[in-house]
Design brief:
Blueprint (H helix, E strand, L loop, with lengths): L1 H27 L12 H4 L6 H14 L1 H14 L4 H16 L7 H17 L13 H10 L23 H24 L11 H21 L5 H15 L4 H13 L4 H24 L3 H6 L1 E12 L3 H9 L8 E2 L11 E2 L22 H4 L7 E3 L6 E2 L6 H4 L13 E3 L21 H10 L3 H4 L22 E12 L12
Helix pairs in contact: 5-10, 11-12
Length: 501
């Protein structure tokens, strides 16, 4: 008797404690307090937070959210081509609606008619489905005459009535799983979009101001061209494109094409990036030329060029010397690695030894950038104010090194050659992650074996991942690039014609 009374007392205390906690939480988070001035009227009428209400609503949501997730699964299966026939049917329907949008008006009633057909067949099964009913055609006619309001399709089944799943059933836990995944999806979408808030919250006023100005211009442009847009064609292409893009064959194809056209080890990818660099460099050059003062155009100007030469080496002394001068590729590419008697780090002539007049440059192997700035100009010329040294990313000068064929340069403007400054290429062939040969030999290898592995260097030594051997091996050990700066004519000198490049 005492045990029973003790158990009843503990249950009563737990119930009271639960009610007390619920009451305290309701009091703390109640929205009945004075709302702030910007509180919306709808928010004022919201029901206050309550644990019993939350429990009841969540239980009902789990039980009755099944149709929502059924529609979600159907859309996902259609987009992912899980049922190709259904996806093709949706593509056909979308194409008809996109071309004839007036069909959207009867579409809701048509869908309801389809729903009624489905529920009808569930309520009144066909004769073929009833194995016990073997009715002759004469019996059907007789039944139709005597009972004109009856369907004559056999025994009717109970009507379809939505029945929420009970707690603990498999369907209940399936809905609970879908709710869990939906919450994760909302969290992922939020995390995906939150980094873009920095562009809209004026944390960097200049950047956000440019976005705001661009949006105003785009809005104005869309307002002007909106009457002339082919909306039917846009809807058709957008809808069909979304379905085609999710086809199981499309993604692997796009991946292969991306690898071929954007991989640095593929010839097509290098050509595409080189074309983009040349286009951007040419646009920047036109912009700089447009900003030149009128005086420069009236007097005439020309580009003064110097060449920067480097050699690849992993020698420790070379690495320390390059590091002292603040070079970005310490221990890899450096002007300190140039051999005695060959090209100097900075030269005027494309041959690496002399300038255009045949006069060799001063002595020394200095790598100071001021060497370019301190260059003496011919009589009657001076530097254009505000125009600094710039790298030639177009690479028209490479035609002289390749026998009249213009080659590409890399993203930093370098043209790579072998140990004897021959076999030029726009990439460091023979090094890790790069093709194993210059363009001419590489094309021959591609004809023999069209395989990506044939283009990537597979024989790497312990020194920087390059092939060892004599100067005839396929390995880039030297490189050079051209720097340009504009000079303006200050006096009339017929011996120095102006060049407008």
């Amino acid at each position: 008797m005492s045990a029973t009374s003790g158990s009843s007392s503990s249950t009563t205390k737990a119930s009271r404690l639960e009610r007390l906690q619920s009451h305290m939480l309701t009091s703390l988070l109640s929205l009945q307090s004075v709302p702030p001035p910007n509180r919306l009227p709808v928010a004022k009428n919201k029901e206050p937070l309550s644990l019993p209400t939350t429990t009841r609503n969540f239980r009902g949501f789990v039980q009755k959210s099944g149709p929502v997730f059924a529609i979600q699964d159907a859309v996902h299966e259609t987009l992912m081509w899980d049922h190709p026939a259904r996806t093709l049917c949706v593509m056909g329907i979308w194409g008809i609606i996109a071309l004839y949008p007036n069909l959207l008006v009867p579409l809701p009633t048509f869908l309801l008619s389809l729903l009624l057909l489905q529920t009808y067949h569930a309520r009144y099964p066909t004769l073929a489905a009833n194995e016990d009913d073997k009715v002759k055609p004469a019996d059907v006619v007789d039944h139709a005459v005597k009972h004109p309001t009856s369907t004559g399709h056999g025994k009717p089944r109970p009507p379809i009535v939505p029945e929420p799943p009970n707690e603990g059933s498999i369907k209940y836990y399936e809905n609970l799983r879908d709710i869990q995944n939906m919450m994760k999806m909302i969290t992922d979408i939020y995390d995906l979009l939150s980094p873009f808030a920095i562009h809209l919250n004026w944390s960097t006023p200049d950047h956000t101001l440019r976005i705001f100005q661009s949006l105003l211009l785009v809005t104005l442009a869309l307002f002007l061209i909106s009457p002339y847009l082919p909306y039917r064609l846009i809807l058709l292409v957008a809808g069909e494109g979304a379905l085609i893009a999710n086809h199981p064959w499309v993604q692997p194809t796009i991946s292969q094409l991306s690898t071929r056209f954007f991989s640095p080890s593929r010839r097509e990818g290098r050509a595409l990036r080189s074309s983009q660099r040349k286009m951007m460099a040419q646009m920047h050059e036109w912009m700089r030329m447009d900003s030149l003062p009128d005086e420069v155009w009236e007097r005439g100007w020309r580009d003064i060029e110097v060449y920067e030469n480097e050699r690849h080496s992993d020698d420790a002394a070379t690495a320390r010397a390059a590091d002292r001068h603040g070079l970005g590729h310490a221990g890899k590419w450096s002007g300190h690695a140039l051999r005695f008697g060959e090209r100097k780090p900075w030269t005027r002539g494309a041959d690496g030894f002399a300038d255009a007049t045949g006069e060799e440059l001063g002595e020394g192997y200095t790598l100071d950038v001021s060497r370019r700035i301190a260059m003496s100009l011919p009589t009657g010329w001076k530097w254009v104010e505000g125009d600094e040294w710039r790298i030639d990313f177009v690479g028209r000068w490479t035609s002289a090194a390749a026998g009249g064929v213009e080659l590409d340069v890399d993203e930093e403007g370098w043209l790579y050659t072998d140990a004897d400054w021959h076999n030029p290429a726009g990439y460091a062939y023979g090094h890790e992650g790069q093709p194993s040969a210059p363009p001419k030999i590489e094309h021959e290898d591609d004809e023999a074996e069209d395989d990506e592995k044939a283009e990537v260097a597979t024989i790497m030594s312990s020194k920087g991942g390059k092939k060892s051997g004599t100067s005839g091996t396929r390995c880039a050990e030297t490189r050079r690039r051209r720097w340009l700066r504009r000079a303006m004519r200050v006096v009339g000198d017929e011996d120095l014609p102006a060049q407008r490049v």
